[in-house]
Design goal:
70 residues, elongated, 3 helices, mainly alpha
Length: 70
């Protein structure tokens, strides 16, 4: 049995005028702003010191960008 629900004109009009609120996960306030969560924020990764070719290339690009308007 196929049970599909169709919205009535009043419900559609209410959604168009008032908007739709989606309730999802609750946002938590940040407790500590100094936490390093990803590899990309760690000093060794940013400078390319850990040996990755991609990180060294990114570090070189960042250095050139930092020195561009000095």
């Amino acid at each position: 049995m196929d049970v599909t629900r169709k919205a009535g004109k009043e419900e559609i009009e209410k959604a168009m005028m008032g908007g739709i609120t989606f309730r999802g996960a609750k946002l938590k306030p940040k407790a500590d702003g100094n936490k390093v969560k990803t590899k990309a924020k760690k000093k060794a990764y940013i400078t390319g010191a850990h040996g990755s070719g991609a990180a060294k290339k990114k570090a070189e690009i960042r250095l050139r960008r930092a020195n561009r308007h000095k």
